[in-house]
């Protein structure tokens, strides 16, 4: 196992996933902003 490095990577991956979902939702709800 990678220990802390793996945990940090998982946190970054989760943050990117959340950001991507939020971006898609905003793009669908408020397309006039893009």
Q: What does this protein look like?
A:
This protein has one helix and no strands. The chain starts with a helix and ends in a 5-residue tail after the last helix. It has one helix spanning 4-29. It is an all-alpha fold and 34 residues long. 76% of the residues lie in helices and 0% in strands. The model has no long low-confidence stretch (mean pLDDT 92). It has one domain. The protein is rod-shaped.
Mean pLDDT: 92
Order of helices and strands: H
Class based on secondary structure composition and strand pairing: mainly alpha
The count of helical stretches stands at: 1
Keywords:
34 residues; mainly alpha; rod-shaped; transmembrane helix; transmembrane
Task: Tell me briefly what this model is.
The protein has 1 helix and no strands. With 34 residues, it is mainly α.
Detail the topology: elements first, then pairings.
Elements: H1 4-29
